[in-house]
């Protein structure tokens, strides 16, 4: 009001991202979209191109790092150094395999089992999948097998090392089709928002305002068509 702005339409970011996804995948109209950032997450659901549901969560992949730090008594820099080598990508370890000393420069070396880190990560990913999707009663009605899930994982270290773990735990209950996708670029979202604002959405009901004509206007319309 102070800036004399006329708000024509409010577009939710999750709706814009979903609409862009539909435009890029013509055969996809019913799907879940899950975005897991470092400190928060959200899930959206589109049903036959209609935006039906969105829910936000106040946790993200940072809780995985916090668990490793707490259980193993190591700091974030060491964990980051370990994962930067992609040491856990599609690998399984024996109980006797320990972290190498190279990950502890200028620090006291700690004998930490590699499998322990895997166990910590899997436990936390399973919990994340349970809260967001598998045991989320808010979306129970829409959960069916073979519905595609488009998933965005913001933290590249977690994505590079544990993407298969996320696929497994998010698909184990309903056999969902998991597709890992890149995060939407800001300029792409702006273009999509502008297009939606101007042209609307194929599943959107747009009300049309009809002005009430005065008596004189109705007379002239009846005379001159």
The dominant shape is elongated
Query: Counting H and I runs of at least 4 residues, what is the number of helices?
Result: 7
Unreliable stretches, pLDDT < 50, 5 or more residues? none
Biggest sheet statistics? 5 strands, mixed
Structural class: alpha/beta
**How many individual β-strands?**
5
Distance between the termini: 40 Å
The largest beta-sheet arranges its strands as 3-2-1-4-5
Tell me the strand percentage band. 5-15%
- SSE string, helix = H, strand = E? HEEEHHHEHEHH
Rounded to an integer, what's the Rg over CA atoms? 25 Å
Mean pLDDT: 87
Oligomer: single chain
Fraction of residues in H or I helices: 40-55%
Keywords:
about 220 residues; single chain; elongated; 5 strands
Question: Can you walk through the features of this model?
Answer:
The chain has about 220 residues and is an alpha/beta fold. Helices cover about 40% and strands about 15% of the residues. The protein is built from 7 helices and 5 strands. The chain has a 5-stranded mixed sheet with strand order 3-2-1-4-5. Strand 4, helix 5 and strand 5 form a beta-alpha-beta unit. Helix 1 packs across helix 6, helix 2 runs antiparallel to helix 4 and helix 4 crosses helix 5.
Short description:
This protein has helices spanning 13-24, 62-72, 76-84, 114-134, 156-171, 186-199, 215-224, and strands at residues 31-36, 41-47, 50-57, 148-153, 177-180. It has 225 residues and is an alpha/beta fold.
Q: How is the secondary structure organized here?
A:
Blueprint: H1 13-24, E1 31-36, E2 41-47, E3 50-57, H2 62-72, H3 76-84, H4 114-134, E4 148-153, H5 156-171, E5 177-180, H6 186-199, H7 215-224
Parallel strand pairs: 1-4, 4-5
Antiparallel strand pairs: 1-2, 2-3
């Amino acid at each position: 009001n102070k800036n004399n702005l006329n708000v024509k339409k409010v577009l939710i970011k999750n709706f814009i991202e979903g609409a862009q996804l539909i435009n890029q995948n013509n055969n996809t109209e019913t799907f879940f979209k899950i975005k897991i950032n470092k400190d928060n997450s959200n899930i959206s659901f589109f049903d036959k191109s209609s935006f039906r549901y969105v829910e936000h969560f106040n946790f993200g992949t940072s809780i995985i790092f916090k668990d490793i730090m707490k259980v193993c008594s190591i700091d974030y820099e060491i964990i980051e150094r370990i994962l930067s080598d992609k040491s856990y990508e599609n690998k399984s370890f024996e109980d006797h395999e320990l972290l190498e000393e190279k990950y502890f420069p200028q620090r006291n070396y700690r004998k930490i089992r590699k499998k322990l880190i895997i166990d910590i990560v899997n436990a936390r990913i399973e919990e994340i999948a349970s809260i967001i999707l598998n045991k989320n009663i808010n979306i129970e009605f829409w959960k069916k097998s073979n519905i595609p899930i488009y998933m965005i994982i913001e933290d590249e270290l977690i994505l590079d090392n544990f993407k298969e773990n996320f696929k497994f735990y998010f698909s184990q209950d309903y056999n969902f089709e998991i597709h890992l996708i890149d995060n939407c670029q800001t300029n792409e979202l702006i273009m999509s928002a502008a297009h939606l604002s101007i042209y609307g959405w194929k599943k959107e009901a747009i009300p049309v305002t009809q002005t009430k004509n005065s008596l004189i206007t109705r007379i002239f319309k009846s005379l001159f068509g």
